[in-house]
Write a structure and sequence with these properties.
Two copies of one chain form a homodimer.
Chain A lengths: L8 H4 L2 H21 L5 H13 L4 H8 L3 H13 L3 E5 L7 E5 L1 H21 L5 H19 L3
Antiparallel strand pairs in A: 1-2
Chain A binds a DNA duplex (30 and 30 nucleotides) through α2 and α5.
DNA sequence: ACACCAACGTTGGTGACGCCAACGTAGCAG
DNA sequence: CTGCTACGTTGGCGTCACCAACGTTGGTGT
């Protein structure tokens, strides 16, 4: 039909464009999947970090998840109103709060993971098993390299 | 030092997390690189599309770049005030504007590309040549697959 | 004991990106 | 002529990421 309705070739071969575009699609899928269980990325990251690392302070959670302290506050507020986490003052350090995953939070985390499993499937549909592993490896290498000065 | 300050393992092996995180880093690098020449992603995409495809309507540009019509308007306004593009009414279809790249716009596009070349280098630093090609191939496959219903 | 600095949680604001709804205008098909 | 579609424009919303500032608390140096 109408020619030139394709993305510019220079963009289509530029890794940064590819990354941001695929990430946009991935983000859309993730947002949809999490939205189906009334959650968003920050919620999942925080709950997953709590599940793996156990109770932690908000600052610790932020560092683990790569989320700014101020954004951790807001996300935890939302999780707390749904009773998915508990926020208790730390008796050993009165500056801190101890964030604890509640049973309901564990259940919600499980639902989120199911939704995300489905997202992975559809996202990686065009890739073979070895290709998925290779993609994971390459992205991990990029991430590790650029995350050293944290 | 303090253990458990690592991202959760489940996140670190999840492709969608890897994509969004690497994309966040890539986006940061791109934004910094383009910011050094007083531009942002939308500006680069639009100028690149104009350079490759020649003058076009705003709706066409939006389709080519994957940018919403309304966002095209704002970005073109910014480019127009810097005289990087011209916006003329289309005599053949009075609904449309014909967007044309000016010589100054071509120069700015060149500066942006230089900045982005540098970004690619630092972004892909940890990968070998074949690995970069493979990453590009995998991302392209993902993008093509998920862009069919456009 | 004191002053100093660092860390914590919190509030508020900014920007980029992506998306959607609505409007008036203009082209096109029936 | 009547609709339907496309176009440009305005305005708004949500997510993610980041920064500045404040008061409180902990730890350190002197």
């Amino acid at each position: 039909m109408d020619p030139g309705t394709q993305p510019p070739a220079r963009l289509r071969t530029t890794p940064s464009w590819l990354l941001t575009q695929t990430a946009a699609h991935a983000g859309r899928l993730v947002a949809d999947g999490l939205g189906a269980v009334a959650a968003r990325g920050y919620h999942y990251r925080l709950l997953a970090a709590l599940h793996e690392g156990g109770p932690a302070s908000q600052a610790d959670l932020g560092r683990r998840c790569g989320i700014d302290r101020s954004d951790v506050v807001a996300a935890l507020n939302e999780l707390a109103t749904r009773d998915l986490i508990r926020r208790d003052p730390d008796p050993d350090d009165r500056r801190r709060n101890v964030i604890t995953l509640t049973p309901a939070g564990r259940r919600e985390l499980h639902r989120m993971e199911q939704a995300l499993d489905h997202v992975q499937t559809t996202l990686l549909a065009p890739l073979s098993g070895p290709e998925r592993a290779e993609l994971t490896r390459l992205l991990t290498a990029l991430l590790d390299h650029h995350q050293q000065p944290r």
